[in-house]
Amino acid sequence: MSEENNFRFLKACRGEPVDATPVWFMRQAGRYMKAYRDLKEKHTFLEMCKTPELATEVTLQPVNALNIDAAIIFADILLPLEPMGTGLEFIVGDGPSIPRPVRDAKAVENLRPVNAEEQLGFVGDAIRMVRKEISGKVPLIGFAGAPFTLSSYMVEGGKSREFKITKMMMFETPETWALLMDKVCATLIDYLKMQVKAGAQALQIFDSWVGCLSPHDYTKYVLPYTKRVIDGLKECGVPVINFSTGTSTMLPTVAQAGGDVISFDWRISLDDAWKQIGYDQPIQGNLDPVLLFAPLPVIKERVHEIMRQADGRPGHIFNLGHGILQHTPVDHVKAVCDMVHEYNHA
Q: What is residue 346's predicted lDDT score, i.e. its pLDDT?
């Protein structure tokens, strides 16, 4: 086994014992860091995503500032939408906007196939640059949105609370939904394979919005497609993390979609989640991101509670239940890294 396969993060992904629980944070490169905000004053968000040198710089900011066990490439889950033909804009204060939402069969049929190497190659270039910089230090995670989350953005035209338009496509025109998911799956598999080829040592699939569905609708309209993507990545030989939020009532079903690691949010206790999924399944989680604003003694109490629930079993990666929030104190994020690494299982 190569030395890089011995990173504690990768060992935990495989369910192997580690010297200390690995920790990293979703959205660990971002607005809560001054270095990021300074860069953001000179460049737009999309410009930073599409310029490999800038994406590399942002990816490395938390690696240099925090005692984390993995880097995650700086990008956005919506980047594949532009080459698919929907357009993509980021509106200050309002987030992503899709200028040409996909709401009927004709719009789905008009979606273009994507050649990730050619049309999203800037992500691959950033991965290659980061790998050179962090070689031997920490592994690099690549990522993409899950089929449902990506499709819901395309259908809704941006963020949503009820996901009414998306659900109506599922319920009223299931064949149109199936075609949309087919096209999105093909794009995601190609895109994630490209990231591995460029040097990503693990992958995370973000299903941030799938918790809006009932267990029945998840099983019928989403699970087969998430599984298709995860199965399509098996030949890559890197661990895949299946992350979702709002799914605490259906984690065993989510786990059926696959993934070397199942990542979940704070709406369920870690020990309960792990018991439901099975202790042979590596897991990732699950501190509430808002807790990072709390006084340090409160944070320590909650971190230790999660560690106690993990009970020293191999296969636990410490993370938040979702991304770091804007204005989070950096020293609190650093403190959590130390709390996790220094925790001794009794």
A: 45
CA distance 273 to 340: 19
Task: Count H helices and E strands in the chain, helices first.
Answer: 17, 9
Look up residue 250 and give its two tokens. 């259906």
How far is the C-alpha of 91 from the C-alpha of 344, rounded, in Å?
A: 45
Q: Where are the domains of the chain?
A: 3-342
Query: CA-CA distance, 271 to 124, in Å (whole number)?
Result: 37
Average pLDDT of the chain? 96
- 336 pLDDT above the threshold of 90: yes
Using the structure block, give the residue that is written with the tokens 């992350």: 243
pLDDT for res 1: 47
Distances (CA, A) of 291 to 67, 179, 180, 333: 19, 41, 37, 10
**Which is more confident, 1 or 190?**
190
Overall CATH class of domain 3-342? alpha beta
Residue 318 CA to residue 345 CA, distance in Å, equals 14
Q: How far is residue 127 from each of residues 94, 195, 201, 285, measured CA to CA in Å?
A: 28, 7, 10, 25
Both tokens assigned to 317 = 């990666």
Q: What is the pTM assigned to this prediction?
A: 0.97
